[in-house]
Amino acid sequence: MSRFPGVDFLDLDAQLSAEEKLVRSTVRDFVEERVLPIIEDCHRQARFPLELVPEMGRLDLFGANFDDYGLPGLNGVAYGLIMQELERGDSGIRSCVSVQSALVMYPIYAFGSKAQRDRWIPPLASGEAIGCFGLTEPDFGSNPGAMRTTARREGDEWVLNGAKQWITNGSVADVAVVWARTEDGIRGFVVEKGTPGFTSADQHGKFSLRASITSELGFVDCRLPADAMLPQTEGVKNALMCLNQARYGIAWGALGSAMETYTTALEYARERIQFAGRPIASHQLVQEKLVWMY
Known about the structure:
The protein has seven helices and nine strands. It is of the alpha+beta class. Helix 3 packs antiparallel against helix 4 and helix 4 packs antiparallel against helix 6.
């Protein structure tokens, strides 16, 4: 398989450090060798390639911008280049890593106790564990401040009730960071897979992000220990801070998608022979479309 040549019309490469280029090259090779050969079948089968998770863990793609727990502590550009290259392969692959890093590891790292960090950051970083982020709800996808999921304190436990919708990694997650309304405002909770009253179900029939796991989470009198709450959370602002972390990677991912889309269209136009034995790229109408993409 030929290696992706890159799309750099503005010579942005000149601004990248040697480390940033190495990170991009490493992830680019991973995408070329491990993602692209299987992703078309995964899309058709609506299957996320879970077999890639340990490999991504070994490459330190989860939480790559953290510098604790043996993680590489990459700068923002290097982290963004990871997301760019992953989304070149498939949006579902980038989505998995974004959720694991920005929406699960970040809140546990930033708002969790030392015990919570010690328990979850290492296995999430290695890919031994998978996480999900439970914020959006069936009736309040874009309005988390109106969430209906509640957590009430009963003695030494929290009792969680409600539902979350459109949750990436939901049905395969070993741990969920779930946001719920308490008497003191919205708080985050760490909910382990297998906790009684905690269920998940996949959503089927998607037309997009087909190689990504999208699920619904349910909580019916789900009892959690008192220390399941992320102690440094103090309102919906903390959940929105997590979303800001994710949006940064998503923006880089959009660049990767655009790069791959343009390159694929250009290659097809050069290879598609039509009308007097000429490639369609030789026609000005096709060239104009490519220029607009450029």
